[in-house]
Here is the input.
Amino acid sequence: MIEHQDLKEVDISIYQIAKKGNWCSGDAFYTVRTDNYVVCAVADGLGSGEEAMDASSAAMSVIKRDHDLDTETIMDRCNQVLWGTRGVVMTILKLDFHSGIIEYTNIGNITCTFYKPSGELYRPVPTRGYLSGKKKKFKTQRIPYEKDTIFLVYSDGLIFDPVYHSIFSKVDTPRRMIDRVVDLMQDSNDDTTILVGKVNR
Ligand SMILES: [Mn+2]
Here is the structure.
């Protein structure tokens, strides 16, 4: 499944596919735009199949309700509802239109890369662990963005080859970038989610 969202300030394209043989994906994503910000998140429920989906969709429903909060608090609230589930790894981004800053909070193996219009690449170091209701401290990074900043967020179903970096160029649209990655990527035998966003203004 490929989905394109024109969120005015940001264009987002998302690709998602379930592990071969499974009817559902254990990954989940969520995006929302308000007049002040855009929030997007990608989660990977531990394992695969229905129980993984239950965990990742529980996290997404918290974000759907609480996206007005800062990403650290959102992460904390997601953690609270995940007690008794398989658990999830997750990355949340929040682009604030007024400050021009992206808040980034992560736990576990969801990779995030920023491509600045200058060509410079920035990869925040992921935090180890996962959410399963156990008490945890979350760190938030604040990353300035500008027009044509690209962000790429993906679950570990994508085996990222460094040659893919050249795809994420400011001359292209997220739609084209997703198409090109999907053309090149190898089958990984895991649920896969790839989200690409590009700032319009
Ligand atoms: Mn996975």
Summary: Residues 2-199 form a domain with the Phosphatase 2c; domain 1 fold (CATH 3.60.40.10).
